[in-house]
Amino acid sequence: MTYHIDAEKISLGDLRKRIEATDLVPSRVPLLDQLGKKMKALEQQGITTLARLRDELKNSKRLAAVANATGIDSQYLILLRREIESYFPKPFALKTFTWLPHREIAKLEQYGIRDTADLYEAASSAKSRTQLAKATGADAPTLEALARLADLTRVQWVSPTAARMLVTAAYDSAAKLAAANAEDVYEALIRVNDGDRFFKGKIGLRDVKRLVQAASYIPR
Questions:
Q1: Which residues make Cβ contacts (< 8 Å) with residue 201, sequence separation at least 6?
Q2: HEC profile for the chain?
Q3: What would the pLDDT profile of 148-196 be if each residue is shown by its tens digit?
Q4: Phi, psi (deg, nearest 5) at residue 146
Q5: How many CB atoms are located within 10 Å of the residue 90 CB?
Q6: Is the pTM value of this prediction over 0.90?
Q7: Residue 152 in contact with residue 177, Cβ under 8 Å?
Q8: Which residues of the chain have pLDDT under 70?
Q9: ∠ CA 149-154-157 to the nearest 5 degrees?
Q10: Domain residue extents for the chain
Q11: How would you class 22 by CB atoms within 10 Å of its CB: exposed for 0-12, middle for 13-18, buried for 19 or more?
Q12: Tens digits of per-residue pLDDT, 36-50?
């Protein structure tokens, strides 16, 4: 299994539905302005998948060409690019999971597995984890913990600390998070963070709802 969603399998129609269904942060709300019309204009230029759209918007020169061909304002396309790139979280270095044994993580790094994408793709199943443990000498409990954390960091906005909190709250996979009631997750996270155990600050129900919805798009 791959760490990120398969952009080749996501049509612009699917993308439109996701944007429309998302509780967008204020800076992204302008994306809803004539969204259907703009998606149609992109499709008319042969841009029919999320993968193709990412490629066409990946730099200023190509983005400007799309703006010229479609009549879509370049600032709108920049905003759209930011939104869709957020669907592909950057992997986290394994060394950022500082609460796990450094020695075991070092064994994985020496084997070439340095971040959550490497780990997830090498150890997303029990069988592959067993094979990886034999190959690297890393212990099974550490691999199991890292696999759960790596899975959760595939979800938009989930940091290593957020992943740790979710595991502690018994939402230890993207699939469990996707199937959960957001209010239950919210209450569980408040409980595990009692006394600022993981971070100082308030947990917002609205943000938790966004997490649960984002998890629903992760393939499993």
A1: none
A2: CCCCCCHHHCEHHHHHHHHHHCCCCHHHHHHHCCHHHHHHHHHCCCCCEHHHHHHHCCCHHHHHHHHHHHCCCHHHHHHHHHHHHCCCCCCCEHHHCCCCCHHHHHHHHHCCCCEHHHHHHHCCCHHHHHHHHHHHCCCHHHHHHHHHHHHHCCCCCCCHHHHHHHHHCCCCCHHHHHHCCHHHHHHHHHHHCCCCCCCCCCCCHHHHHHHHHHHCCCCC
A3: 999 999 999 999 999 999 999 999 999 999 999 999 999 999 999 998 8
A4: -65, -35
A5: 9
A6: yes
A7: yes
A8: none
A9: 95
A10: 7-85, 94-215
A11: middle
A12: 999 999 999 999 999
pLDDT at 196: 87
